């Protein structure tokens, strides 16, 4: 499958005279294949928006290569811009224009037929409110307008930075079906979001970024499989056999946590080996269940951003790959 | 082309543009109406009345000087101290000769097209220039501050094209208001001169000179518009342009003016921008230095003078536009849009 979006070794350093420099992107790689819905995940301040802005030519990168639809960007942006629809982090609109005027001005600038305006307004559910001034819209309505503006070009690649921000539950579900329908019609969608349940439901593949570097990527189930820490729940026919089983498994080098009626094992490669081991000790397994991990726990593990009781994690305290492997502690967070 | 049309549409859709333009045109209309009502045509009636008033004044003078002379003689006879209130010889108290009191002084003001029309082009250019400045600043400033510029760049990634097209649309819009307004201005004052003054001696040479002044006025409007636009784009906010101008005018010009006059610099006005704007409109502004004496052949003292010409102003205006617009284009090319 051809890559629709490819990024290699992207670097961006924000320089500020007073506060020095900040490496927002530090050799970031990404690849999105055609026809996919691709999730772009990362903790706050990890560089998602910076990546998307750079890709769209709003920010000048300090190094690295990027291609969109097979063209090197930013040089070829004028040729590909017509096929890339994007919203970047809660876009703002001129507050005194109506949604229809806003879209019609964009359509005019981009040489899109005016009939398309009503199509997208219908698509995002703003048809009946399209004549009202954007100033009077709620957060979710503005977000819908933003999605409409990205869809206006009928793009081949749709880039959405936190599109679900502010949407109601119905809106989120609609967005989900919309993404799927678009992907089925051949559109490639890149989606950044913090709602991991959503991502897990609608994305074919993901890229996870932390402190400006990629920490994981690939199809969702592969990422999950690679990082399911091999947790397995074991029940035995007789509860009284549990201590003996714990003993045997621990000796075999498996991490065991005891519970009143079952055992939790960690670091198990093949669940079958557990059955064999226990059978050799005449202990019979009544249930052996690999624990399905969800994207959220994988994300927290990979980015090292799981909350620790009694600690207030600061932004930028997350996994740093290729560095010391320790959470980097730089800069402040809320209230710091 | 589609971008140009779209930007023109955006410009005219904005309420600020509409209100400011309307306001500017209303002020201009008020000026025309005001001039119309404060001027009168000079006919036989007015001349006769002026003659009568002059006579009246002459009579007053005669009566007053007679009273004074009488008082003087009385004081002389009584020998009372006059504290220098009266001259030694009372006969020198005489009324002014009749012909020194000119009837012309008592004529109502009248609008002479040939003599005064060119002066009216200065407020015309100033008011429309001000409108152009704020409309231009808010047109691009609001786009920057509310993210519209970013949205647009996602559609048209060529930044310089976007900014230049916006400016072109803005100037087109301003010109579309200024040119008809100028025509109406000429027509309005011609009507005033016809009904409330005189249109005598307006030769084709006069017309040509007035047309050129009008053209310079239009250019001034476009220059001010461009500067407002470029400053707001540079600062990414409408307020930046307005603030910048306030800073320049108050600190730069007002402060500089005070400083220069305290230091008694010769020709201090030569350092102030309004002088050049005036010179641009009136072709020359002559500055005088009263602290010097250029003796003439007749032994008279003439102040030293310096002429600021419209050519000098044109250099200043061009350099200003090139520098400010250049900076805004350069920043547009280089900056990160976040
Ligand atoms: N204009 C800027 N000037 C300086 N630093 C910036 C600027 N924009 C972003 N940064 C920094 O770059 C880093 C990445 O920011 P970015 O907005 O890309 O994060 P993000 O992944 O989109 O986060 P979020 O999930 O909160 O949206 C952050 O540390 C941020 O502080
Ligand atoms: Mg972001």
UniProtKB/TrEMBL annotation, chain B:
It comes from the Bacteria. This is ABC transporter permease subunit. Keywords: Membrane, Transmembrane, Transmembrane helix. The chain crosses the membrane at residues 20-37, 121-142, 163-193, 213-234, 241-263, 315-332. Pfam families: ABC2_membrane_2.
């Amino acid at each position: 499958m051809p890559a629709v979006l490819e990024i290699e070794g992207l670097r961006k350093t924000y320089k500020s005279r007073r506060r020095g420099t900040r490496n927002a992107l530090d050799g970031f790689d990404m690849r999105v294949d055609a026809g996919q819905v691709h999730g772009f995940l990362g903790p706050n301040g990890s560089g998602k928006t910076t990546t998307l802005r750079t890709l769209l030519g709003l920010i000048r990168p300090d190094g690295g290569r990027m291609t969109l639809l097979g063209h090197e960007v930013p040089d070829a942006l004028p040729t590909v811009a017509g096929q890339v629809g994007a919203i970047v982090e809660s876009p703002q609109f001129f507050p005194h224009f109506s949604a229809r005027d806003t879209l019609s001005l964009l359509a005019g600038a981009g040489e899109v037929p005016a009939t398309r305006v009503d199509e997208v307004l219908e698509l995002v559910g703003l048809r009946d409110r399209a004549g009202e001034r954007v100033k009077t819209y709620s957060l979710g309505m503005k977000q819908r307008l933003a999605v409409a503006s990205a869809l206006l070009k009928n793009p081949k690649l749709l880039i959405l930075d936190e599109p679900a921000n502010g949407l109601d539950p119905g809106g989120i579900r609609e967005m989900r079906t919309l993404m799927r329908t678009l992907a089925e019609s051949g559109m490639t969608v890149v989606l950044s979001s913090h709602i991991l349940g959503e991502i897990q439901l609608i994305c074919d593949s993901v890229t996870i970024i932390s402190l400006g570097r990629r920490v994981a990527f690939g199809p969702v189930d592969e990422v999950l499989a690679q990082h399911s820490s091999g947790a397995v729940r074991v029940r035995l026919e007789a509860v009284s056999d549990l201590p003996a089983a714990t003993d045997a498994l621990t000796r075999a080098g498996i991490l065991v946590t005891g519970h009143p009626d079952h055992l939790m094992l960690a670091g198990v490669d093949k669940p079958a080996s557990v059955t064999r081991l226990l059978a050799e000790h005449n202990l019979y397994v009544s249930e052996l269940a690999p624990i399905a991990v969800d994207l959220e726990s994988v994300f927290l593990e990979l980015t090292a951003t799981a909350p620790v009781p009694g600690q207030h994690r600061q932004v930028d305290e997350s996994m740093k790959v290729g560095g010391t492997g320790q959470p980097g502690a730089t800069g402040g967070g809320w209230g710091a | 082309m589609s971008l140009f049309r779209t930007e023109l549409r955006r410009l005219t859709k904005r309420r600020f543009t509409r209100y400011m333009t309307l306001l500017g045109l209303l002020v201009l209309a008020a000026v025309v109406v005001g001039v119309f009502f404060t001027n009168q045509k000079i006919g036989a009636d007015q001349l006769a009345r002026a003659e009568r008033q002059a006579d009246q004044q002459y009579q007053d003078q005669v009566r007053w000087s007679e009273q004074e002379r009488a008082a003087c003689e009385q004081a002389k006879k009584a020998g009372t101290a006059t504290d220098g209130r009266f001259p030694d010889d009372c006969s020198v108290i005489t009324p002014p000769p009749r012909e020194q009191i000119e009837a012309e002084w008592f004529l109502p003001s009248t609008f002479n097209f040939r003599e005064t029309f060119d002066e009216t082009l200065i407020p015309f250019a100033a008011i429309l220039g001000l409108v152009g400045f704020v409309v231009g600043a808010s047109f691009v400033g609001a786009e920057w501050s509310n993210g519209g510029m970013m949205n647009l760049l996602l559609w048209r990634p060529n930044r310089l094209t976007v900014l230049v097209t916006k400016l072109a649309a803005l100037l087109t819009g301003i010109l579309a208001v200024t040119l008809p307004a100028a025509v109406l201005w000429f027509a309005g004052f011609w009507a005033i001169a016809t009904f409330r003054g005189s249109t005598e001696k307006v030769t084709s040479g006069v017309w040509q000179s007035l047309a050129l002044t009008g053209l310079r006025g239009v250019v001034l409007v476009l220059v001010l518009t461009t500067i407002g636009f470029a400053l707001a784009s540079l600062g990414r906010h409408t307020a930046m342009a307005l603030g910048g101008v306030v800073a320049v005018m108050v600190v730069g010009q007002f402060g500089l003016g005070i400083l220069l006059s305290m230091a008694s610099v010769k020709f201090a006005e030569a350092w102030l921008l309004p002088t050049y704007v005036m010179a641009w409109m009136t072709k020359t502004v002559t500055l005088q230095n009263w602290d010097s004496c250029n003796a003439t052949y007749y032994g008279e003292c003439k102040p030293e003078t310096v002429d600021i010409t419209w050519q000098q102003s044109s250099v200043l205006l061009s350099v200003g536009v090139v520098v400010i617009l250049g900076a805004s284009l350069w920043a547009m090319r280089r900056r990160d849009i976040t």
